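Researcher: Here's the sequence for the chain we discussed earlier.
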Amino acid sequence: SARSVDRASALWLAVARVQSTELDELPAAIRTLQRVLKVQPRNLDALERLAQHFAANQSWHEAAATMEQLLAAAPGNLRLRRTALDLACLYRERLNMPDKALRHVETALTTEPGDPEALRELSLIHEALGQLPQALEVTRHLLDVSEGRERGDALVRLGQLEHATGNSENAKVALQRAVVFEGPGSDAAQTLE
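Model: Thanks. This is the structure I predict for it:
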């Protein structure tokens, strides 16, 4: 029955938790989570933890495939915005697939269009795709929605992109503004030097 499958899955999830946290046995935890997914392929907890374990194991392709499964299992689930962002970052940073990353960061932005973390990732993806004008546009939007430390980071990013497009005067202005936010010993100050 469905209840016994749910109970068995809950038990195996608990076993996987012990394997990964108490015994430090990621391969065993991965096998246990895969066992849960054989009987409940849309178990969000198992998919989420399996993706985390694959990433911790630096199995990037497996982590990406599992995150894809997780997003397909629960489209529109707000907690999956984090997964979409993580997947975008994984595709851009680890798998050098910025085109795939773009799709996932756009998914994350549909649930929260002004999210600074997603906008920063979108800017990085556009840069990786060689689309510097779009990266600059997104970074300017990021600057508009950022506050405090995030604003300083956005100014540093803007300065780097302005420099990359050959506009050294705008880059200098952005970095000087960033130093105001971050202080004299900051990344912005070092980049300005």
